[in-house]
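Batch 3, record 17
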Amino acid sequence: MNDTLAGFEELSHTADLEIKVWGDDLASLFLAAADGLFHLSGIEDYEEGFSAVKETISLDAMDYEGLLILFLEELLYRLTEDYMLFSIEKLSISTAFSLKAKLRGTQIKSYQRDIKAVTYHRLNIRETDHGYEVNIVFDI
Amino acid sequence: MVSIADLKRISSYEWEIPASYRADMRVPVRIFASETLLKDVTRDKSLEQAVNACALPGLVGSVKVMPDMHQGYGFPIGGVAATRYPEGVISPGGIGYDINCGVRLLGSRLSYQEGKKYLGELATALNQSCPSGVGIGGHHRLSSKEVEDVCRKGSRWAKENGFATDQDLRRTEDGGQLRGADPRFLSPRALKRGMGQVGSLGAGNHFIEIDLVSKVFDQKAARAMGLNEGDLALQIHCGSRGLGHQVCSDYVKSLQSAVTKFGIILPDRELVCAPMDSPEGEAYLAAMACAANYAFANRQVLSHYAREAFESVLAGRVKDWHLHLVYDVAHNIGKIETHQIDGISMEVCVHRKGATRAFGPGSKELPSEYKKIGQPVLVPGSMGTSSWVLRGTSKAMELSFGSCCHGAGRVMSRTQAKKTIWGEDLLKQLKKDGIKIQAGSMAGLAEEAPAAYKDVDAVVETVTSAGIAAKVAQLKPLVVIKG
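Prediction for the assembled complex:
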């Protein structure tokens, strides 16, 4: 485990879904968390046709954990409301807990699982020898 | 991790984690469980989560946990906590993302013998008339103003639009309209998510089920509820859909800074909260009531569609196809109620997260037909197993803030269920048992397999032996519609 620079794995949770995410820096941790969210939503297969039109998102929070929630909630909202899956072209995180990302979207036809929310339950971004890791619980 | 050795035995069905267990506990935890069910809950983090919930400011009595408890996020599922109103706190995480997720039961005068040959047609008709599944909305899209109206009026909105009767409203908790709802406290996203989902079931563990009233245990109570052994009944389990999820997400986020402002220290950020007499607490209460009303309206509109499905199949073929509402209960909600705490009458906010209100006889909140018997308590089982109709007792008012269990409760993770159970095999087994299933996906079906849940009969034995509810009737599933 954790032999790749960034990634996620699904853990056992009685009723909801939990993933452990790791990355060598905060940006790669956030990107791996987004991959985890899309995986849990059941949209691994989609048409490679990301729009050339780039969208920019800017988010601000009180801390990195809050920023991670905002980021994942944004992607989840666009997925469930607009059926949009995003390729994240560029993502930067500042020490003032701001995030900026450039995204290219593609329309999806369906997804397999309704995720109700990204929770704060025991959410704690930890520094490790290889970078960062965090466990995220999703309510389903 | 809390172990069985940390528990004090109060009775065969009640256990305590004393407030001395951890320094930040303001009150003890009281667990309703048999010894067998207790072993299940020590396998996951539900008891630790119950201990965490004991840190909320303003708690009174003890934090209760029902026998169907399992690990959630923040509060355990099956948790009940009462905070003194208005100076105590309200915690969105103690109510959950699916605000006013709940169940309703509709009874009929149609016997299984007379109706059994139409069950296949009924399954198809229900599946067609009641929208269900991942990302599937209702038949009609509402304007933002109409969503606000739904949020203010709940089931009354449904009645004004031809989806409900007076009796439906009377037999819904709070008449299907929680007071204090104010859509000004909803975010634009919450309103937008509400526009397309009134009258939709969703997915996950939500379902519509045709049941057989297989056994009546309390004739007097069953008669009051219009339930007869051998007749068909219908259950609907769903909640406030995306609007409710958004309300909870919005307020768990905004209250992160409120806890710092009010100097509240918590063991888990999902438990964030605010005093109910603060602007932050008042805002959440108003938004939560909106989502609760949306859920009442949602279940009511689905009931209307189910009635239409019954009519389309059965009109002219059977004598009586009418479905009457027995009761509608909320099992993820915060309610301002009056309870006796240590002999003193007190207004409290009862957080019920995966727990059902179970008011005893004489409660002023009950409609006249249930005043003598107590509130109908609906305990759906897992797919393919029994569901139960219970009634609230005076002892529930003493021991559990008038609360009871809400279902079977999971024991197996979804990943484990999918690994060990094949949806197709399960479908075959259920068919063999004479149960007709209409399901959105095979993987989703496997996740909800009966083996992933506790034995609902054992859960019901526990609450009835503890005295917080009494048996009225057992239901057996015949047709299950899942998203």
